[in-house]
Amino acid sequence: MRKLTSFAAGLLFGLGLLLSGMANPAKVIGFLDLAGAWDPSLALVMAGAIATAVLPFTWAKRRSRSLLGAPMQLPNKRELDGRLIGGSLVFGVGWGLAGICPGPALAVLLTGHWQILLFVLAMLAGMLLFSALERRRTC
């Protein structure tokens, strides 16, 4: 049942990304181009996503287990540190340069665009590098 609900949630997320335009690099770059022809439509998408998530997250914070019995795994760290800020900067720069972030990249991976494949390969390389650096850091 967990795999089925995970698949359904991923499918819903992917469809939402496609329908909202978040998987279109030109639309994302238009949103990020504050000094040029700014397209504010993705701000409405983000505001809608935040508004939609408020109730489920409020509910989840009060529970120790999900509806399917899995333990709740919400982040509990609240302070900002250099790692969080640095990671956010790297993510933001990559999003701005490529016009796409990991979720939409995976949603459109099979469209055959070599740029998306290159982005996903670079993303996976970054994840492997992070894992290697984390292992070195904790040893």
TrEMBL record:
The membrane-spanning stretches of this chain are 41-59, 80-100, 112-133
Keywords on record:
Membrane, Transmembrane, Transmembrane helix
Q: InterPro entries under this entry?
A: DUF6691 (IPR046513)
Against Pfam families, the record matches this protein to: DUF6691 (PF20398)
Tell me the superkingdom of the source.
Answer: Bacteria
Annotated protein name in UniProt: Membrane protein
* Species this protein is from: Stutzerimonas stutzeri KOS6
